[in-house]
Design brief:
The protein has about 325 residues and is an all-alpha fold. It is built from twelve helices and no strands. It has helices spanning about 1-30, 45-55, 60-70, 90-125, 130-140, 145-160, 175-210, 210-220, 225-250, 255-260, 265-275, 280-310. α5 (about 130-140) packs across α7 (about 175-210) and α6 (about 145-160) crosses α7. The longest helix is centred in the first third of the chain and has 36 residues, at about 90-125. The two termini are about 10 Å apart.
Length: about 325
């Protein structure tokens, strides 16, 4: 009952936050100038029709009401700058698989490596191995992902010639050719995630290994390996597993910088392009701003709820 009330409360707060953010984005966007319809040439009639449908000539609050009226059924208008005359929702759906692909590959690489390094460092606590892993993790966490992207491109493409500098999209997002050309981008995105998982896993496992119940397990006859696997790992994973869930929920959010650097035609690159366009592509901006906001808010709720599912002792919403 506590969990149900907590979930309803969080969903309500999520929707309120989502509404506030999208309202601010919409108002700020509408304060910017729009291109005259005459500049679209043969697409002028289509642009004018869509603008009239969305109420471009109406007061801003009526425009906002129409925006939600059509957005709730998947109609976010048409592109006026990047893909002139094309439906922005259809373009978004076409580009989403590329973002999902690069994030899935990155997560599948990062999770086992990060957790494995964290476990190894915790079991070798205060040895040179632990110091080396901990120092490396702190260095990696401190460096932005685009720096790794430059290094990966320089080493794998320029010096060794083992990989392409950009993604090959000829066979689709989940093809073997697409996967091979994504490897530099996947590596660039993975460094920070691996370091993050290693740091949290080491910290949690060291805390659990020094707990009194671990001493009790050893006195009952369990070996160090048995006590670690049966008891320590299970308790240490309580805060780690929600992080893994959060990573999988965020697979659609993409990486704005990495997609741009490796020419991955995903929603991250589309978002950057919609902002950098002159003038900005307003309909793409509103769709992608709403999308990123909703993904981030939903990930937070799922992570919080997962705590009580993983460990029944945690009662979310209880006093």
């Amino acid at each position: 009952m506590y969990l149900f009330k907590y979930v309803l409360k969080r969903i309500g707060l999520m929707l309120m936050t989502f509404f506030i953010i999208t309202t601010i984005c919409f108002v700020l966007v509408k304060m910017l100038p729009s291109l005259p319809a005459e500049q679209f040439g043969k697409d002028m009639a289509l642009i004018m029709q869509r603008r009239e449908l969305l109420g471009y000539n109406l007061p801003i609050m009526q425009q906002y009401a129409r925006f939600w009226k059509y957005a709730l059924v998947g109609n976010f208008g048409i592109s006026e700058v990047l893909y002139i005359g094309q439906d922005v929702w259809k373009v978004f759906v076409q580009k989403l698989p590329y973002t999902v692909a690069v994030n899935v590959y990155s997560i599948l690489l990062s999770i086992p490596l990060g957790i494995g390094l964290g476990i190894f460092a915790a079991l070798k606590k205060n040895t040179w191995i632990d110091h080396f892993i901990s120092t490396s993790v702190m260095v990696v966490v401190s460096v932005p992902s685009f720096i790794y992207a430059f290094l990966v491109q320089y080493i794998l493409y320029f010096k060794l010639g083992w990989a392409s500098a950009t993604m090959n999209t000829s066979m689709g997002a989940f093809s073997w050719i697409g996967f091979k050309s994504m490897i530099p981008a996947v590596l660039s995105m993975s460094f920070g995630t691996i370091a993050g998982f290693a740091r949290y896993t080491r910290a949690e496992l060291i805390e659990v290994l020094t707990s009194e119940f671990m001493l009790l397990a050893r006195t009952k006859g369990l070996t160090k390996a048995q006590a670690t696997i049966r008891h320590a790992m299970r308790n240490a994973m309580v805060p780690i597993f929600p992080m893994i869930l959060g990573e999988f929920i965020s697979i659609m959010s993409g990486s704005l910088i990495i997609e741009q650097m490796f020419s991955i035609p995903g929603v991250g690159k589309l978002y950057v392009s919609s902002i950098q366009a002159s003038p900005p592509d307003y309909n793409f901006f509103m769709l992608l701003s709403s999308f990123y906001t909703l993904i981030g808010l939903a990930a937070g709720i799922v992570i919080d709820i997962s705590y009580s599912i993983i460990d029944p002792r945690i009662r979310m919403g209880a006093k």
